[in-house]
Sequence to fold (267 residues):
Amino acid sequence: MAATAEHELVERVEALTAKLDALADPGARALADELAASIVRLYGAGLERIIAMLDEATRAALAEDGVVGSLLLIHDLHPVCLGDRVAEGLDSVRPYLASHGGDVELLGVEGGVARLRLRGSCHGCAASARTLERAIGQALEAHAPDLRGLEVEGLAPPPPAPSAAAPADWVVLAEAGLLGRGQVVAAGDDLLLANVAGTLLAYRDCCAVCGGGLHDGALTGGTLRCPGCGAAFDLPRAGRSTSPVGLQLEPVPLLRGAGGVRVAAGT
Fold:
């Protein structure tokens, strides 16, 4: 099923659910809920029988499909346990944490709740709250949507956000597929995407010294030099300037997974 058709089907289900909830007759609402639940259980029983006939490799391949994987999760038939899927999600976000000199440790999963610990300098970074809320949260949502909650150690309370602030949207960067090692490219309206030894990092495309764009700068190892003023920035170390010292680029949370390379816009 094409992605557009999937989206339209989800919207249709949501619209029909809203109409059922709006029914004035509580008996009719209860009857509709019972009917829907019975249909779901019927399909679940059939899906369980089908899965039981398949070999392990086929089950794993089916679970990689977004639609099928969601059905398997709904009916508790996913071949990969929750703990392993949480670990996979954390692995996908580690490059971003490493760019801040930190890491995340999975302490365990109990009762559907994952316990994490931020390590290194990540918990002291100004973007640590955003890293948890958006990067780690989005990664776990993609790999383990059935996770019930998170408990995190080593996270400093984030500063209060303005009441009018809008939540960030995650956008796919098509430019990432064309980016080779040691290359940088402008992405979106004001983003810089860099490939440092196979690790993708995203920053605002704005030099912390002169304010000019960095996408035409030379990337040597992990150091990016501004084409305008010559300032140098260490990208794997959160974009800290090496010449002059004391300035820093603005990092942007980035996820790399089956859905492509995505960044948090509006942060």
